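User: quick one
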Amino acid sequence: MATFDVAALRQAYGGRPVLALDALTVREGARLAVVGPNGAGKSTLLRLLAFVDTPAAGTIALEGKRIASGAARRGARLRVTMVEQRPYLFRGSVLENVAYGLRARGVSRAAAADRAREALARLRLKELAGRDARALSDGEVQRVAVARALAVEPVAVLLDEPVSGADRAAHHALFAALAEEQARRPLTIVFASHLLEDAYRWADDLLALHLGQPSPVTPENLFRVDLPGGSAMQEVQVGPLTLEVVTDRTGPATLAIPPEEIVLSTASLHSSARNVLRGRIVRVAEHGAAVRVTLDAGIELVALITRKSFDEMGLAIGGTAFASFKSVAVRVF
Amino acid sequence: MSGPGGEVAGIALLSLRIALIATVIACLLGVPLGFFLGWTRFAGRRVLLALLNTALALPTVVIGLLIYLLLARRGPLGALGLLYTWQAIVVAEIVLALPIATALSAAAIQSVDPRVRRTALTLGAGTLRTAWTVALEARFAILAGVAVAFGRVLSEVGAALMVGGNVRFQTRTLTTAITLATSQGQFGFAVALGLILLALALTVSVIIQLLQGHGDV
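Assistant: Done. Structure below.
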């Protein structure tokens, strides 16, 4: 059975549409990554799936049961939990925070404390139990919030940018803990992220959102620009850089540079590619025989190359590389 | 108690009693009302908040006059025979403290991080538990409002003079006694009474600060 079944979902703030999702099915035990740039509608979708906000239109079914009334939403919130991008810990101890959801479900104080300790132990946070929740580091707050959300053993947990503030080792620890939790019991995970490496590494399904709608392309190398117009070959300002693109459009638009269309080299190429950018390698993520290389060239660009090319060129984090791509490879929409 | 020392102690105790009773009653009414105004959204709420903020600046002599007219023998509540009793001062001080307790509680609730409500909801809390959680997060600011109300009531003189009448051994409070002593040129006595008033205010303020410091529930 699907954990979530979404149909014709619409959300608007102050009359402005922010999300339009015709259909989405999240099966039980799935790990769905919702990716997209800021303002794509990721948080909006998560809040709707958490039944905190009411949709402007459309339906959400939880485990096959349509959730429409306020009472049904309240009941659904007992089975789905959410961790915000910047989680809030209530005043009091870490243990009291983690026990909060259990107490809200009528669990006795002693039993809630025991189960909260178990949840903290599963996230390797046992030693934080007695600490003042206001005295934690950002990374600890994030992990405690995840422990708090998991302590009630929900059927689904929704995580909004769960690793935005923490370091890479913390990212790994968090996702590993979530994977362990899934191995222990049925749990559906939906997480929003602007980092595609995390999505590719940890999710088994991916929903790319752009301006509140499912996007045909993944949100790597997506840039909001203002096209000057004038001719088919246009010079467009993207951050500090000027790129050449081929389009008849003018005005606000989105550029997408497919990662597989970018050629990486250790020296500047003399080729038909109109765009050649020099940058520093800041992240590398492996995906089987392929490697996603993130280059900081004034803007962050992700290139998808083979493992073999990566090794042969001797690329490494911190090293310099050139990214080349043709004007016609840049998609404009 | 007898002698000047006994009289001063009686005045101080009466001041404390009036301030405590008025603050407690004003807060019992004002804090829940402030919570309601800060928590809910309804038509006319902004107007109510604006009126409340105006009431914060209400001159105490105006309050004194209103209560005097209400409690005067020919007034609507004249039959109660409260004028020139310490209970009349309590009534006036409640009118003074109520807008403070309400407005500061509303502001405290409004200033609570919106994530508190959302977090409580996503963790499965019902409406009451969510409201309680928000109130707990705002408790230090609410307590600060209670302290302000108490301080204002304890130091008030105009209304106390008008509806209490500064009757010796009956309605004379520290502030009205200071006024009298000053008008009679007994500056040393007035200063001594002022110091007692300060000491009382300081004691209550310290107690509230201690409550805030150990307030984690």
